TrEMBL record:
InterPro entries: DNA_Partitioning_ATPase, P-loop_NTPase, VirC1
Gene3D superfamilies listed in its UniProt record: P-loop containing nucleotide triphosphate hydrolases (3.40.50.300)
CDD domains, per the entry: ParAB_family
PANTHER family the record matches: COBYRINIC ACID AC-DIAMIDE SYNTHASE, P-LOOP CONTAINING NUCLEOSIDE TRIPHOSPHATE HYDROLASE
SUPFAM superfamilies: P-loop containing nucleoside triphosphate hydrolases
Protein name: ParA family protein
Superkingdom: Bacteria
Coiled coil stretches, renumbered: none
Amino acid sequence: MNTRNRPDIAQRVMTFASSKGGVGKSTVCAAIAGALASRGGEVAILDLDQNQTLYRWHQQHGASLTGITVLKVDPENFNQTLLAAKAGGADTILIDVAGAYEATMIKAIAASDLVVTPAKLSEPDLREAAKLLGEVNAFNQRFGSSIAHRLLVNEADSLDPLYQRHALAELDGSAIKRFSNLMMRRAPYREIFISGMPPHLADKGRAPVKKAIAELDAIVDEVLAVLSQPTKAKAA
């Protein structure tokens, strides 16, 4: 499905953010970019991470990443780069920010329709997700905007052990909203920056890749459902 024919979600902006490093923002961003591009849309990624993982990934493998472009962003020129991505006709703009709470993260949040916080089921990751939710809520209250926030559980255990069920139950009893589908600990995600291919562009004959694709498709369906909800105009 080409999202350009869906005016309700055309040119939506999604930021992958956590003030904690090591939660998998770049991997999740690349995987979801591949899933969106596989539906016929054009995806632009703005790489605000100082490590420039996604920019280097695209520099090396861009010829094979149909429908995906990655722009290296100078924080001082964030707004200009975002406008350039929109003018370039991208259906969806994904922003990968550094794992630190700084001014560029606030700029990215302010420009977003949806902020996604990848998190493992650990106290430090979930604590940072709660902190970021508080910042998004404060921004919405201050400017009358309606930026959505969702937690995406990352590197979950497919065996669903007791600790995982307990952590999810505790999470669902909190104020943090999450996607119901989880990203499991799978080899195809770890291979993205080795082979260069997100699951949707990898060898679909492999069983682990098929599982990752089905998982990502379910997550992207949830993402698009959130993005299709009406939003109030955000403050400049």
